[in-house]
Specification:
globular; single chain; 74 residues; Double Stranded RNA Binding Domain; 3 strands; alpha+beta; 34% helix
């Protein structure tokens, strides 16, 4: 079965972690980073299995850039 690489953004939220697939706006959560990632992978694979190809194409962000920057505050 073919595979594709996706970008995951993981952040702490309360007592757990939230993982977001930036390319398709799919998110999941877990008590650990590893659990959040495993749940995200499962959610993404289920979405790709069930979604209409037109919906996948509409939601897909083909170029995703993750970077950091500084901004003044206060």
């Amino acid at each position: 079965m073919p595979t594709t690489s996706y970008t995951a953004i993981v952040e702490r939220e309360d007592d757990g972690f939230v993982a977001l697939c930036a390319e398709l706006d799919i998110a999941s959560q877990g008590q650990t980073v590893e659990a959040a990632m495993a749940n995200l992978k499962e959610a993404l694979e289920l979405f790709l299995e069930c979604a209409d190809p037109a919906e996948i194409a509409q939601r897909l962000h083909s170029e995703v850039y993750v970077t950091r920057f500084e901004a003044a505050h206060g």
